[in-house]
Design a protein that fits this description.
37 strands; mainly beta; SH3 type barrels; Agenet domain-containing protein; ten-stranded antiparallel beta sheet
Length: 508
């Protein structure tokens, strides 16, 4: 691999590889005014994920660096207890006070797996509901920072939100009382008929008989724990009795990892592939399907970035991830032989029906390899000095039983012009990991990948700095470099066809 034009992150420090991300640090948020109610966060050990209540005392001029506001805490006093504590806090640690919970939101159920803020010792702490206790009506909430599990009443919890681009995400549930009264009948009708799709079993079964003949391309769902809300591509290979079908999955494999997985599914868990979308821009609040781990998973857009990528929240697993436009589609429900678009939160109009594409018979194709030719992949190196690094490439061809040819995205051949092509072992390639939305800052000892010299290098956060920067330690060379938040991603391992997140390093 002597022809590679890349470097270990600790070999050289070229300035073009260490440019800082664009910054808006000199723009003072509009909500910061003297007397304004705010919530205050901190990077102090033991208080990550906590939001203190307070108010703004003074604000800096926009040309001042750093942009530190003086705040007064509502529930913290000076050491002598004589008066509320005042201190200077950077604007990045401030957000407006979350409005009181609306009556509509008070009626919403809090489910296991949901992100919440829990009011504990006069502070709002970010956590995740792990159990809804039926006996006493309390909720068990897990706090990642302290690794504690504590029980709370419903009135001590609020739905977790982030302040992103001057707005709350997910959006606040706003309900005007007069509108609720005037549209009460319509809302009730919507709730009963459209919020939960009403399935007519006889109609659904009749449609299945008509459409799902042998060879038909379909999507199959599962009620198995951990797979609720996911649809996998398959084809019908046999009809069994009056309401069941044997299907062969396109992307799932038997235990031997070679033969396509075959299973029996009933007519309620089979549908045709939804009609393709036009090239649309997804907006916050849209219900979408994201292709991940060989299936389409239902999620909700909680953040929209300028580069076209979006942040997705998956309620079933309580995960947040970032995806590009490719691999996303607007969510549709298959109800009584028709496609229906879901309603956005608070919407009371009838769901729009989408015509079904009747031509759903499978195109003949044979998939022999796990990665198809042209698939974007990441490639590791076994060369000394490049361990624990991954480089973007695409798969060109398979050679023999365990070799393949890849072409790198950023690395160049010896002439410095053409993309570098190289033969590697199959165990050196993996798919590109899904982008994960890091709503909270990275923490000390988080295992991360750092983008440097055209590759992703495995390291561990050793220190959290100001302005969303971090010192990252690389164990192979025992050196430390500074990176901006935008140059890091949470480390994930590709194991047995699945991504496993490694949030914390096992060594200090």
């Amino acid at each position: 691999m002597s022809s590679l034009r890349r470097q270990s992150p600790m070999v050289t420090y070229p300035t073009n590889q260490r440019k800082k991300a664009p910054s808006n640090n000199n723009r003072l948020p509009s909500f910061l005014k003297p007397g304004a109610a705010v919530e205050i966060s901190t990077n102090e050990e033991g208080f990550r994920g906590a939001w203190f209540m307070g108010k703004v005392v003074t604000v800096p001029s926009p040309d001042k660096d750093p942009l530190n506001c003086q705040v007064e805490y509502a529930t913290i006093s000076e050491l002598d207890g004589s008066k509320p504590l005042k201190e200077f806090v950077h604007v990045d640690h401030l957000r407006p006070a979350l409005p009181p919970t609306s009556e509509m939101e008070k009626k919403r159920d809090i489910l296991a797996g949901e992100d919440v803020d829990a009011f504990y010792k006069d502070v709002w702490w970010e956590g995740t509901v792990t159990e809804v206790r039926g006996g006493d009506g309390k909720f068990s909430v897990y706090f990642r920072g302290s690794q504690e599990l504590i029980q709370f009443r419903r009135d001590e919890l609020r739905f977790h939100r982030e302040w992103i681009n001057d707005t709350w995400q997910p959006p606040l549930d706003e309900a005007v009382e007069e509108e609720e009264e005037s549209e009460e009948d319509e809302v009730d009708d919507y709730t009963e008929e459209y919020l939960v799709p009403q399935v007519n079993l006889e109609t659904t079964k009749a449609v299945a008989k008509e459409m799902f003949s042998i060879g038909t391309v379909v999507e199959v769902s599962s009620d198995e724990e951990g797979f609720v809300g996911c649809w996998f591509a398959a084809k019908v290979v046999e009809r069994i009795g009056d309401d069941e079908y044997r299907v062969e999955y396109k992307d799932l494999r038997e235990v031997n990892g070679v033969e396509p997985l075959k299973e029996v599914a009933d007519f309620l868990h089979i549908r045709p592939p939804p009609p393709s979308d036009e090239d649309i821009d997804f907006a916050v609040g849209d219900k979408i399907d994201a292709f991940y781990n060989d299936g389409w998973w239902v999620g909700e857009v909680i953040e929209s970035m300028k580069d076209g990528s979006v942040g997705i929240f998956f309620r079933e697993s309580a995960e947040k991830m970032r995806f590009g436009r490719h691999g996303l589609r607007l969510h549709k429900d298959w109800v009584n032989g028709n496609w229906e678009l879901p309603l956005k939160r608070g919407e009371v109009k009838r769901a729009k029906k989408v015509p079904c594409e009747r031509n759903v018979r499978r195109k003949i194709a044979i998939e022999k390899q796990y990665f198809s030719i042209g698939t974007p992949v990441e490639v590791s190196s076994i060369e000394e000095g490049f361990e624990d690094s991954w480089f973007l490439a695409k798969l060109i061809e398979y050679r023999g039983t365990d070799k393949c040819l890849v072409e790198y995205d950023k690395l160049k051949a010896e002439d410095g012009k053409e993309p570098l092509s190289e033969e590697v072992n199959e165990f050196q390639i993996r798919p590109q990991p899904p982008e994960m939305v890091m709503v909270n800052p990275f923490e000390k000892l988080d295992k991360v990948n750092a983008l440097y010299n055209d590759g992703w290098w495995i390291g561990v956060v050793k220190k959290v700095l100001a302005k969303s920067s971090y010192l990252v330690h690389f164990s192979k060379t025992d050196e430390m470099l500074k990176f901006h938040h935008s140059q890091l991603r949470l480390h994930q391992d590709w194991s047995d066809g699945k991504w496993i997140t490694s949030s914390k390093s096992q060594t200090v």
